[in-house]
Amino acid sequence: MPPKTQIVDITNDVNYEKYLYKCLAPAPFRRYSRRHEYLVKAIPKGLRKKLLISEGKVVGQIEYAPAEASGYPIVGNNIIVMNCIWVLRRAKGHSFGKLLIEDMIRSEKNADGFATVALENHWSPWLRKWQMEKLGFMPLDRVDVSDKARHREIVFSIYLMWMPTKKSAELPSLDKQKILWGETFCFSHPLYRPQTWKETIFDAKTRF
Ligand SMILES: CC(C)(COP(=O)(O)OP(=O)(O)OC[C@H]1O[C@@H](n2cnc3c(N)ncnc32)[C@H](O)[C@@H]1OP(=O)(O)O)[C@@H](O)C(=O)NCCC(=O)NCCS
């Protein structure tokens, strides 16, 4: 860890509550109901939110939970699912992303492996597959979809990404039917389904 850099678990720290809700997004802090419902359910089941603080500034974050408490429909045996990782662009070049991943692996050393999702060809810059690969995940499965509400003409891929840490680890799976509903744990996420949208938000473009 570089000097003046630390990773702090803020899951249960009221002083950092705003980072549980808006993470690093430049949005006003509000305790919105879907996030609140998710936190109330997931924290007792092992959700962790950590910040990377460098020279007194919050420049990175990671959020993960056992599969059962994660924000994605990923099914696995004794695995941890990373909901999100984010290092601000201005803090690039210090291996902060790697440090957050290593911290997660160290903290969850009994897990058989780590899974997450990544995107390819999505219009946003978020959760790019190549970035998740750089962090150590490999693609296991994918579903091609289009968004029913925005940029309907763009077909993008949602990948299940995997990083086993035990030789005996069983492969996880992505519930593709459920991922078509998007996610509701974070409103800054590219797969977020708005509260007003009462059906699946994605159209599957591949058969499964
Ligand atoms: C992915 C991310 C966490 C990586 O963090 P980082 O601190 O910039 O990356 P690191 O310095 O730890 O580098 C990790 C690896 O990626 C490589 N890398 C990072 N940026 C790269 C780039 N632009 N091109 C090529 N390789 C790159 C590094 O060289 C390193 O690989 P190595 O170990 O083989 O040298 C960061 O880029 C990020 O937050 N991206 C956005 C993630 C996102 O979409 N979050 C969701 C928000 S809603």
Folded structure, characterized:
With 208 residues, this protein is of the alpha+beta class. The protein has one domain: Aminopeptidase (3-Layer(aba) Sandwich), CATH 3.40.630. 18% of the residues lie in helices and 31% in strands. The chain contains five helices and ten strands, in the order E-H-H-E-E-E-E-H-E-H-E-E-E-H-E. The strands form two sheets. Strands 1-2-3-5-6-8-7-10 form an eight-stranded mixed beta sheet. A two-stranded antiparallel ribbon has the order 4-9. The protein is globular and about 50 Å long. It starts with a strand and ends with a strand. The relative contact order is 0.15. The mean pLDDT is 97. Coenzyme A (COA) is lined by residues 84-87, 92, 95-98, 126-127, 131, 134-135, 188-189.
Summarize the topology.
Elements: E1 5-9, H1 17-21, H2 33-42, E2 48-54, E3 57-66, E4 74-75, E5 79-87, H3 96-107, E6 113-120, H4 129-134, E7 138-147, E8 156-164, E9 173-174, H5 176-179, E10 202-204
Parallel strand pairs: 5-6
Antiparallel strand pairs: 1-2, 2-3, 3-5, 4-9, 6-8, 7-8, 7-10
The chain binds coenzyme A.
Sum up the structure in keywords.
208 residues; globular; single chain; 10 strands; two-stranded antiparallel ribbon; binds coenzyme A; Aminopeptidase; 8-stranded mixed β-sheet; alpha+beta
> Using DSSP, what is the number of strands?
10
- Identify the bound ligands: coenzyme A
- CATH architecture level-2 label: 3-Layer(aba) Sandwich
Proportion of residues in β-strands: 25-35%
What best-fitting shape do the alpha-carbon axes yield?
globular
Number of domains: 1
Task: Give the low-pLDDT segments.
Answer: none
Q: Averaged pLDDT, please?
A: 97
Q: What is the CA-atom radius of gyration, in angstroms?
A: 17 Å
Name of the CATH class: Alpha Beta
Helix/strand-derived class? Answer: alpha+beta
Largest sheet: 8 strands, mixed
What would you give as the CATH superfamily? Gcn5-related N-acetyltransferase (GNAT)
Q: Give the termini separation.
A: 43 Å
